[in-house]
Amino acid sequence: MEFDWSPQDEAHREELRRFLDETLPEDWETISRDGPGSDAQAGFSREFCARMAERGWLTQHWPAAYGGSDAPPWRHAIVGEELWAIGEPRGPQYMNVNWIGPAIMEFGTEEQKAQHLPRISRGEVIWCQGFSEPEAGSDLVALRTRARREGDAYVVDGSKIWTSYAQHADFCILLVRTDPEAGRHKGISVLLVPMRTEGITVREIPSVVGERYFHEVFFDAVRVPVSCRLGPENEGWNVVTHALQYERVGAARYARAALTLDRLAERARERGWLEDPHVAERLGHARTLVEAARVLTYRVIDQRAHGKPPSTDTQLARVAGTDADLAVGELALELFGQEGLAYGSFADANFRLAMTAGVAVGATEVQLNLIAARHLELPRE
Question: Across the strands, what pairs with 202?
Fold first, then answer.
């Protein structure tokens, strides 16, 4: 198996790095400190993504018909690695190009594609994800937000929680129950809802993860045109499972973990700690987890590049990435104590985001259950 990047890919990575050196402001580390949902970073994302789009890089892995250039998935992976490692200047828009856009391509009407895909490809729109609820987090199919059909519109009542980027979002990809009498995975639909629609209320949930990172979103008799439904009515679970296969490896967490680990090792070297076998062992173990997450993610990308359907390799890569992220954060705390995770330190942002990795887009326990059932084919109790 060949693990080296092609000369063309290497050249693209170098060109991207030069672009970042020229484009990111001098106070980028301060802007990115509070995560992609902060006011500063969400605002900057519109400017930054527009510049990416001008160069044809933002959605280069998309089909040319939808604003891309038919580039292989590897180019999207390079962009993800370079941007996530330094704090993700695409801000909330990384979701757009990674899985919201592809979901609209797969399940959207021609009108929906024409409305949404060009704006995503130009880097001028922010989306949020209305999936989790107070009683339906890891058990997503237990959702209770109801969409009642009234003529050519749905009337939506309910609430969502832990919704990232809702304060800045223009649209929400919203999971609702359209048939409350159907089975758990049936009777679910997906709506593409403008966030300025009357009846939507957003309330921030203060969090150590970062400013504007989590929100509650309330829907009180919100009227959404039936034309905003993505995919067939009551078959939204197919849309969700398709989208999450992209989202679970969308954030190159291993790249941020690797950069943080390099800085930890450098600090340890400066203080003469690398002579301690325990420190060297702990650094080596963390590096092994990071590289395992990278290789497992590359396996998923390779499958996409060869047009293969999603598999449980996605769950394996997700769990590995979560483990690596947490291991680096915990190592920073072990080696440097409070200094290692002081607010604004190089390890701080990595650790705060790592805390959410085990629950975002499917809890680690859910991923492990899927691996056990579908990958290892273990019997259910």
Answer: 217
Closest CA to 231 of 219, 220, 221, 243: 243
Q: Quick one: pLDDT at residue 36?
A: 75
DSSP state of 365: H
Give the count of alpha carbons within 13 A of 328, CB side only: 34
CB 101 within 8 A of CB 242: no
Q: Residue 283: CA atoms inside 13 Å, Cβ hemisphere, count? A: 21
User: Nearest Cα to 143, choosing from 156, 166, 155, 160?
Assistant: 160
Same domain, 150 and 97: no
**CATH, residue 360:** 1.20.140.10
Confidence (pTM): 0.87
Instruction: For residues 261 and 90, give the distance between their C-alpha atoms in angstroms, rounded to a whole number.
Output: 23
Residues 72 and 61 sit within 8 Å (Cβ to Cβ):
yes
Coil, strand or helix at 164 = coil
Residues 81 and 176 in one domain: no
pLDDT tier at 351, thresholds 50, 70, 90: low
What's at 9, amino acid-wise? D
From CA 300, how far away is CA 279, in angstroms rounded?
A: 32
DSSP 9-37: HHHHHHHHHHHHHHHS-TTHHHHHTT-TT
Signed CA dihedral, 338, 269, 27, 48: sign only: negative
Are both 193 and 114 inside the same structural domain? no
> How far is residue 172's CA from residue 169's CA, in Å, rounded to a whole number?
7
Distance CA 189, CA 274 (A): 54
C-alpha 142/C-alpha 233 separation (Å) is 17
Mean pLDDT across the stretch 278-301? 94
